[in-house]
Structure formats: C-alpha cells, structure tokens
C-alpha cells in the first residue's frame, strides 16, 4: 500500500518506458504527475490504452466543448462519490469556467449552479445514465436534441459519461488519492 493507492505503485525505476514518457509530459504541462497516472501504471499497457481513449474523449477537439466535458466528469464523479475524479476534474472545471463558485456548485449539486438549458440537459442526462442506466429510453435523447445536440454530440456525451463511470470505479475501488495541487488550482 502507498499513500496514493491501495495497490503497489511503480516508480521511475520500474515503470514502463511509455509510461515514463507520459509522466514526463504531464510533469512539464502541469508541474506534477497526476496520482492516477502513477497508480494505474502498475499495468502499463492497460494504463496507456486507457489514457489513449481518455485523452481522445476529454482533451481533443470534439462535439462538446472542453468545459462541457469537464462538467460531465464532475457530475458523474459527484453521483459516484469518486473523490479523486471530483477533486481533479473540479480543478479543471474551475479553470475552464474561470468561475470557481459555479464550478464548485456544480460539483456539490449541479441543480443549484444556475445552468443554462443545454448545461442542465447535459447534467441531467449524465446523472441519469450514471445512477439509473436501465431506465434510459429513446425519449431521453429528445431533450438533448431540443438543446442543440446532434447525433455526434450525443454519442460523445454517452462515451464521456461511460469513461468517467469506468474511471470512477477504478479510482474508488483502489483508493486513489488526488494530488494536493488540485485542491488549490484555479481558486
């Protein structure tokens, strides 16, 4: 057990080369290596495959804005009570919104954040898919279409919500601890 995971965490002498390159890039970009990168590196190939898909969904140009994707991450993580993801993506959302109060309110209860119709529809859909996936119906998509989402954006929304549900479960099941740096970012 380490301070950041309930499993062993590789260090620079035991992490695979591809993982070390990613650690270096993140250290240069953020000033630290996210603990989720360190904790998941125990199975290097699986971690890098997860990162490739995560990076594609969250950090690349897509059909949803970066702020919308981070908002989804925060709503899903709040519903799942995932400490790591709520703290880390809450920090990212604060930076993207440039409104710490609104971002923190979304993290606690998005219904109190005075969101516009599109943001409200995204959050409601993400929460329902997270908490009650068996109740999803085709009618749920109509609300999304009414606020301007096309099929491409809807598919991306579902994939982002799915990714965060996966990541929340991994993080929660293995006791991942967020980096201290996240708590003070963009405040």
Report on the architecture of this protein:
It is a single chain. This protein is mainly α and 187 residues long. The chain has two domains: 17-59, AhpD-like (Single alpha-helices involved in coiled-coils or other helix-helix interfaces), CATH 1.20.5.810; 66-173, AhpD-like. 67% of the residues lie in helices and 0% in strands. The chain is built from ten helices and no strands. It has helices at 17-30, 35-40, 44-58, 66-80, 83-97, 100-109, 117-131, 139-146, 151-173, 180-184. Helix 3 (44-58) packs antiparallel against helix 9 (151-173), helix 4 (66-80) runs parallel beside helix 7 and helix 4 packs across helix 9. The radius of gyration is 17 Å and the shape is globular. The protein starts with 16 loop residues before the first helix and ends with a helix.
Known CATH architecture of the largest domain:
Up-down Bundle
What characterizes the major β-sheet?
none
> How many DSSP helices?
10
What's the number of domains?
Answer: 2
Q: Which consecutive residue ranges, at least 5 long each, have pLDDT under 50?
A: none
- Which percent bin holds the helix content? 55-70%
Class per helix and strand makeup: mainly alpha
CATH C-level class of the largest domain is: Mainly Alpha
Rounded to an integer in angstroms, the radius of gyration calculated over CA atoms is 17 Å
User: Shape, please?
Assistant: globular
- In the CATH scheme, what's the topology name of the largest domain? AhpD-like
Between the first and last Cα atoms, what is the distance in angstroms?
Answer: 32 Å
InterPro entries: AhpD-like (IPR029032), AhpD_core (IPR004675), CMD-like (IPR003779), Uncharacterised_peroxidase-rel (IPR010195)
GO molecular function, one term: peroxidase activity
Protein name: Peroxidase-related enzyme
Domain Carboxymuconolactone decarboxylase-like: 46-106
């Amino acid at each position: 057990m380490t301070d950041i995971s309930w499993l062993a965490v590789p260090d620079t002498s035991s992490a695979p080369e591809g993982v070390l390159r990613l650690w270096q890039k993140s250290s240069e970009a953020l000033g630290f290596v996210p603990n989720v990168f360190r904790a998941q590196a125990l199975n290097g190939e699986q971690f890098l495959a997860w990162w490739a898909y995560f990076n594609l969904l969250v950090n690349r140009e897509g059909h949803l804005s970066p702020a919308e994707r981070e908002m989804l991450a925060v709503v899903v993580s709040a519903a799942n009570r995932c400490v790591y993801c709520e703290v880390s993506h809450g920090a990212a959302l604060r930076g993207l919104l440039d409104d710490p109060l609104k971002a923190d309110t979304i993290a606690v209860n998005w219904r109190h954040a005075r969101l516009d119709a599109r943001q409200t529809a995204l959050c409601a859909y993400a929460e329902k898919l997270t908490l009650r996936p068996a109740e999803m119906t085709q009618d749920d998509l109509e609300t999304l279409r009414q606020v301007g989402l096309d099929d491409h954006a809807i598919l991306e929304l579902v994939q982002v919500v799915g990714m965060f549900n996966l990541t929340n479960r991994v993080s929660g099941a293995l006791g991942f601890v967020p980096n201290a740096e996240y708590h003070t970012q963009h405040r």
